[in-house]
Amino acid sequence: ARGSSHVSAQVPKMVFHPLGRETSRVGLGCGTLVGRGSLRKSARLIEAALDLGIRYFDTAPMYGMGTSEEVLGAVLKGIPDVVIATKVGIARPPYSPLKAIMRRASKVILDRSRQLRTAARRAYHSLRRRSEREIEASGIRHLTASHVRQSLCESCALLERSSVDVYLVHEPTPDDLASTELVKSMEDLVAEGLIGCFGAGISACDAPSHLFGSVW
User: Which residue, 141, 192, 128, 191, is CA-closest to 170?
Assistant: First the structure.
C-alpha cells in the first residue's frame, strides 16, 4: 500500500472468471486483514488495491483472527464490480483483543529484522501443517450440508452481501473432495443463487482439487 502512489499504471489485466464475467488477473489475499482495532489500517490496504484495479478478494472465516470478512464487508459494501471468494471447512477462531495487541506489537519487531521474519514464517507454516494434520486425523471437518449452509450464512452477514461469488472448501482432504453430500450441498447453493460457483482452496498443487467444482 505504501508504494501504490508510485505505480503509474493499473497492474491487473481483466480475465474471464468461471462466473461468466470479468475480474482482475491479480487478486488480494486477505489473510492478514484484521478488523476491530486494526480496521482503519486494513481498510487503507483494500482501498489501495481498488485504486490499482484489483477486483478479486480472497478471504475465509479463519483469516484475520476471524475478522477478515468483517473488514471486506465494511469497505466493499456497495461496490458492485468486485468478486469475493470465501471458504468453509476451518472454523472461525474467537477474536481476542489481547492477541490482536500482541500481534501488532510483534509485527513492529519483525519488520525490523529479516532473520526474525524468516524464523516466524517457518514457525507459522510448521504450526499450520501440524494443525492440518490434526484436523485430517480427527476427521472433524464440519462439512455436512447443514454446516456448509450455516457457515455461508455467517459469511454473507459479515460480508454484507446476499451471496458470495466463489465458495471454496478450505484445505480439503481427498475424502472431502470425493464426498457426494458435499458436492450436492454446493450444487444446491448454486441453484439457489447463494453462491456463484464452488471449488477447492488448497495449497498443495499436486492434489486432485481440479476435479471438485470449477475453481481451485
Answer: 141
Tell me the per-residue pLDDT of 25-39, one tens digit each, with 9 for 90 and over.
Answer: 889 999 889 887 788
Using H for helix, E for strand and C for coil, what is the string for the chain? Answer: CCCHHHCCCCCCCEEECCCCCEEECCEEECCCCCCHHHHHHHHHHHHHHHHCCCCEEECCCCHHHHCHHHHHHHHHCCCCCCEEEEEECCCCCCCCHHHHHHHHHHHHHHCCCHHHHHHHHHHHHHHHHHHHHHHHHHCCCCCCHHHHHHHHHHHHHHHCCCCEEEEEEECCCHHHHCCHHHHHHHHHHHHCCCEEEEEEECCCCCCCHHHCCCEC
pTM of the model: 0.77
**Residue 19 CA to chain centroid, in angstroms?**
18
Burial class (CB in 10 A: 0-12, 13-18, 19+), 12: middle
- What letter represents residue 178's amino acid? A
How many angstroms separate the CA atoms of 52 and 110, rounded? Answer: 27
For cell 482501498, name the residue. Answer: 47
